[in-house]
Amino acid sequence: MKQSQLFTKTRKEAPKDETAKNAQLLIRAGYIYKEMAGVYSYLPLGLRVMKNIEDIIREEMNIIGGIEMKTSILQNKEIWEKSDRWNDNVVNNWFKTKLKNGGEVGLSFTNEEAYSNILKRYINSYKDLPIYPYDFKEIFRNETRSKSGIMRGREFYWKALYSFSKDEAEHNIFYEKTKIAYQNIFEKVGIGDLTYLTFASGGTFSKFSHEFQTFTEAGEDTIYVDEKNKIAINKEIYNDEVVKSLGLKKDELIEKKAVEVGNIFTLGTKFSEPFDLKYKNNKGEENYVFMGSYGIGLGRLMGTIVEVFADSKGIIWPETVAPFKIHLLEIGNDEKVRKEAEIIYKKLLDSKIEVLYDDRENIRAGEKFADADLLGMPYQIIVSEKNITTGKLELKNRKTGEVKMIDENETDNLFI
Ligand code: ATP
Ligand code: MG
């Protein structure tokens, strides 16, 4: 894409009321637009990052048997009354509204009821199970805390998968598979080393749930970490008995600030009971379906990536999620330089390498460099008069700052 066609512009300052580093940088670089606290629009560059994250998650969900669908955002009061989660004393963060012709609806704050209600229509026999439907969806929560930028939105985009199994044993097999899928996802988006499987509060059907917590000072959670075994315990459940019941020692454990980028939860029959979601086993006996839920917040993940990798100059994207792999910078208002930059741009496009080409005229070199560092593409290729007279191009690694001189024809196989 040519940068002259990108309507977003960088800005020196973020809005005064924005205190989170992730949102400050993303706003300054033109990835997102702040509508109000906890509500952001995704601009072209921001959407490209979200879509890359979405593709990585989708691939891993499909590998473990996930089937993608989409539940509606407007939710029917009667359905949520079945599980008592319409009640404001039980759930205090609904956005609710009245229909003009009577009746009340709410904007999805989660999906369990929607899925249980739909699946009841299709699950009858043991032959129909197990199944693993999921969706990517906008979720709405009237959060009181919304000071963490896109890491805690009032409106946010997530992936939620629900597992419907015959029994606990079948559920447990899938639950373990999702742990691996989640690890793969966090590995692929670049935060694998910083992300710990964390024991958190369970429910009626399991002692613990599991969160995936990424180390960052911007996180709202406190966890106790065993770095050797790569597991952690959320402060919410941390006590001597829990530490002991996991084969851990208290004086091994280090306290860290972290953010929950995903979680997996054994629901058991908590939702299948109120929805009378049953199947007939091979003897014709009726049993409740055994459920689990598995969430990841995409905006939160994107914000976390910004938080953990950014430096004083701006954002640094891992290659897998970057909106463009290369930022091609044309430096100086020179016809020869322009021609050369155009040739390289075309070559990169022909090799299917995603490139943002800074073809803007009359912008000082220093400004282009500063913008490129702020935007954070993993590599910058600099075409300047000085470089082309030597027949070389400058290739800069945004993360390490390392600069290499390369031949023009080397661009073809640089990034394969
Ligand atoms: P938290 O404990 O941070 O409030 P949660 O336990 O309520 O989150 P879930 O309802 O299980 O989260 O949602 C699944 C995932 O969605 C979370 O792991 C997180 O990645 C993401 N998420 C939850 N709330 C938000 C939010 N307000 N903004 C962005 N992402 C969110
Ligand atoms: Mg939580």
If you had to describe this structure to a student in words, what would you say it looks like?
The chain has 416 residues and is of the alpha+beta class. The protein folds into two domains: 3-309, Bira Bifunctional Protein, Domain 2 (BirA Bifunctional Protein, domain 2, 2-Layer Sandwich); 326-412, 3-Layer(aba) Sandwich (Rossmann fold). 28% of the residues lie in helices and 30% in strands. The protein is built from eleven helices and 21 strands. The strands form five sheets. The protein has a five-stranded mixed barrel with strand order 9-10-13-11-12. A hairpin with a 4-residue loop joins strand 11 (221-226) and strand 12 (231-234). Helix 2 (44-63) crosses helix 7 (298-309). The longest helix has 21 residues, at 168-188. The chain is elongated, with a radius of gyration of 25 Å. Magnesium ion is lined by residues 260, 263.
